[in-house]
Amino acid sequence: MLFKKKDVDTLIGKSTVVEGDIKSDASVRVDGKIRGNVLAVGDVIIGKGASVSGDVTALSLYISGIVEGNVRCSGFLKIMPEGILKGDAKACGFAVDEGAFFNGKLTMSYEGNPVNGVIASGAE
Predict the structure, then answer these.
(1) What confidence tens digit (pLDDT) does each residue in 29-84 have?
(2) Which residue from 17, 23, 49, 11 is spatially nearest to 35, judged by alpha carbons?
(3) Model pTM score
(4) What are the backbone angles phi and psi of residue 5, rounded to the nearest 5°?
(5) Which one, of 77, 42, 80, lies nearest residue 59 by Cα?
(6) Residue 42 and residue 28: Cα distance in Å, rounded?
(7) Staple 45 to which of 29, 51, 52, 87, CB 3.0 to 4.6 Å?
(8) How many Å apart are CA 79 and CA 34, to the nearest integer?
């Protein structure tokens, strides 16, 4: 398990489908499906079997499921062996495991931390 339950503020369960955007001042774990954008000041974890059809903005993003949209991380982006990212990515750090799929353009950026720029301006 990548994170302990106490590290996650919001959990979208396996049997849950969200239609619309999610904004959080903390971390979010998605084990279900989201059809909309995800904006989090903390980390976002996309679990195995989960999917997001929309853009994701987070401190760090860990993908074990599917993300179809552009992603922006002021920290780290990691695509796990079963993870799929179909969209452009912007992050300060990047890692992709063997078996993962990434179809898009990657831009490495040091835009700063979420308090000073990339994220905080959108998560109110």
Answers:
(1) 999 999 999 999 999 999 999 999 999 999 999 999 999 999 999 999 999 999 99
(2) 17
(3) 0.84
(4) -55, -35
(5) 42
(6) 7
(7) 29
(8) 18
